[in-house]
User: Fold this.
Amino acid sequence: MHKTACVIIIASMLAASFLVFQPVSAEGNTLTVPTDFPTINDALQNATDGDTIYIKQGVYNETIVIDKAITLRGEDTNGTIINGNTTGTVILIRHNGVTVTGLTITYSLTHNTPRRYYQHNWPADWLGQGGWSGLGYPMDSGIFVRRTEFRLAGIHIQEAKNCNISGNRISDCGVGVWLYLSSQNTILGNILVRNDYGLQVDSSKSNSIVGNTFLDNGGGIWLPQPNWVSGWGYNGKTVNNTFSQNNFIGNQKAIEPQCLTNTTNYWDNGSVGNYWDLYNGTGSYRIMGEYYTGGWHQNGVWKEQVYGVDSYPLTEPFNTTCMFAIHEEDPLDKQPSDKPSLTDYTQIEVAASIAGILVIMGLIVYFKKRKNAF
Assistant:
């Protein structure tokens, strides 16, 4: 009876150890659109954290909400197009650790929405002066935009961190990329063209905006003021964001700061700044904010104030093609190795396997001593 029990215990321990020690892929699965699933949303519903949704070239008329830590990867930036069909935000990200790369993202606007415009700052008592119509807009080419319009984004990162948006072309949207209450994200090597605003950094901190091209937008980057209208949900500051090696070309205004005090954002990385098409080639580049003073309707004047400084501005556009590799390799062509590497096992799996082996060895020694005792 004791011998049978011993055999069962040892066999069970060996089986458990074997099961625990099975390798787990560190990369997750690849779901291909349209090969495996006809639409991106279908693939997303079947994806889990760590998976990659690989999108073949084509036009996909969809809007997407990402609430998993997945990678959305296009086969070719120019040939893989997600068209929002003017129905709203094209890609909404509500999860940490999301990557979106290699895509063209376009048309989050409604057809009758005017494009390529920016707005001025307002006086403290603007509501008492009759609001925007009371101030006599448009003035000095500044046009006010209703929030319901310019909220529509190509990519909207909402309360998320450690996301990577790289190598995309985003055009004809209210906002190309919108960071809202988000931190530690990377916006790298994208082309943002013909949007109302190329990028909106809103109550967000410690983000890295590097190697992007802002071309022919109303405003290249918009930095709203936190708590600018009570009750609209702004409850944080836009601080400690780094902007470097970006190109600002042909925008009506490169930077539109809503708050005239630079809240510790950095316009160079300590050695390299950005390319500004209005830079005269001498010294640092001063980023100016505008404010309205001296009256209401059209009796007041717009004045400028220094908002930030790029200490190392570039005299020629930065070559963003070296910032990242275009995804020419199809992940489906990768052949899995027959031999798992050490990185295929988690620390818990390794520890559990060692513990199982030690328990088995202890049982063997114990029963040997017990047998000799008899």
User: Anything to note?
Assistant: The two ends are 15 Å apart (CA to CA). The mean pLDDT is 75. The chain has two domains: 1-27+347-374, 34-318. The first strand starts at residue 30 and ends at 33.
